Structure formats: C-alpha cells, structure tokens
Amino acid sequence: MRPILALAILSATLLLPAQERKVPMSLHELTLNTLDGRPQALSAYKGKVVLAVNVASECGYTPQYEGLQKLSADYADRGLVVLGFPCNQFGAQETGTPAQIGAFCKKNYGVTFPLFEKVDVKGPAQAPVYRFLTAHHGEPAWNFHKYLVGRDGQVLKAFPSKVTPGGTELRSAIEAALR
Questions:
Q1: What is the CATH number of the domain that holds 101?
Q2: Active site residue 87
C-alpha cells in the first residue's frame, strides 16, 4: 500500500467515533510499545491475570504506584501482571518524557512492572488497548482507573481511581480471577 494512501486510511479511521472503530476481541491481540520504545506483544500475558491502569506522575492518586507495585510483587507468582499506561489527558498530569516517567516511577515507588508509552485513553485518538478495555466497561474518568483482565484476555471488571490497590474490593476481585 502506498504511504499516502495508508496515512489517509489511518487518519480516516482515527476520525471515526470510538464506537465505530474496530475493537480487538482480546487483550492478547495487541502489540504496544514499552516505555523504552520496544514493541511488546500482549499475547505474552496469555494465561495471566492483568491489571491495566492509566497512570500519571503528578496526580493526587500518584501514590497508588506504591500499592500497584505491592500488588505486582504479592501476586506475581500466582499469575498477576500489572501494566501501566501513562496518560496526559486528565489535568495534564503526565507531561514527562518516557525517560523521565521511568526514572520517576523507579526512584519514588520502585516500580518494576511494565510501563508502556503514553496513550490516549479516551477521545478520537483513543489507543487500541483502551478501545478494547473500555468497550464494555466505560472510559476512565481520571488517572489510576483500573481494568482487571482475566487469563483469557477478557475484561472482568473496572475500578475507578478511588479504589486503591490495597483495598478489599480490588484484592478480592484479583483473588477471584486468580482462582
């Protein structure tokens, strides 16, 4: 396909309302760039329970990074993977470069779980991963909205920002998904 034609098709697709764009059938169909720019096929997480979270470095909920890291450590051996998706759509609270985001998360919260390139989680440029996550569970209203995805790659439940990583509601849902 010619580059100009491909660009025209991509541009036309992005202008479609989110509900009219193709929604992936499973989280495992997607490939995204990690924070360091390397492609990561989410099929690598087949058979795992995934907690996908839109994150930001300058938000009132930013201390949830600590709880997300604890969840990652506590449940990794049982099959939980936390995935962080930096987003700058809520209050411009994630303005950093990929290197700055990575350094901030490591230094302040010891984050070792995978972080991906900055994405739009809503609107006309919504990333395909969020098109999938939000298809039946609604768009995030703010940073640190969480989507729990089962081992089969399907979204089980969504949790608003105020639901903390250490809270009973989220931990109970994770426990159930890991059974």
A1: 3.40.30.10
A2: no
pTM above 0.85, yes or no: yes
**Cβ atoms of residues 178 and 78 within 8 Å:** yes
| pLDDT attached to residue 8 | 41
In DSSP terms, 31 is beta-bridged to: 41
Domain that holds residue 164: 3-178
Question: Token pair for residue 154?
Answer: 């399907």
The backbone torsions φ and ψ at residue 177, rounded to the nearest 5 degrees and listed phi first, read: -70, -30
Report residue 37: phi and psi, to 5°.
85, 5
Contact 140, 54 (CB under 8 A): yes
Q: What are the residues facing 148 on neighbouring strands?
A: 51, 157
Contact 177, 146 (CB under 8 A): no
- Beta partners for residue 39, in sequence order: 33
Which entry of 59, 105, 119, 155 is annotated as an active-site residue? 59
Q: Please give the DSSP secondary-structure letter assigned to residue 54.
A: E
- The total domain count for the chain is 1
What are the beta bridge partners of residue 83?
52
Band the pLDDT of 18: cuts 50, 70, 90.
very low
Please state whether beta strands 31-33 and 39-41 pair in parallel, antiparallel, or not at all (unpaired). Answer: antiparallel
What's 22's DSSP letter? P
